[in-house]
Amino acid sequence: MAQSFSTTASRSADMAKLLLIGRLGKDPELRYTKTNKEYVAYTVATSNNTPTTEGVQPTTTWHHVLSFNPSSNNYLRTLKRGSLVYAEANFELRQPDPNADPDSPEGQRQIFLRHESIRVLRQPPKDKEDIDSE
Q: Does the model's pTM come out above 0.70?
């Protein structure tokens, strides 16, 4: 049986998604846009091992995620710093504004992560001993 493929672009099937497994860097924060729209911002820290001339160096990357979904925002606000989470976010690369100062955020290329879902894999450690045992 032959398959046929359309050459017509299907924008509904396009997507860019980032899947993160890491720890919340701080408690999610309620914020407001310039037009007073409520959103929640949270940060997920992921760790990688980067090869160096001296061996392997652990590095941490901080991913800043924004949620504009009111039902998700209520749940996000209950999460605590240090929680191990699995998060899914839509990924958008924003080009710099040519009229902005190159040293400002608007003058630089930005990665915009829009919250899609989150699942807590492990609650945050209660004390330093719990962190050291992981």
A: yes
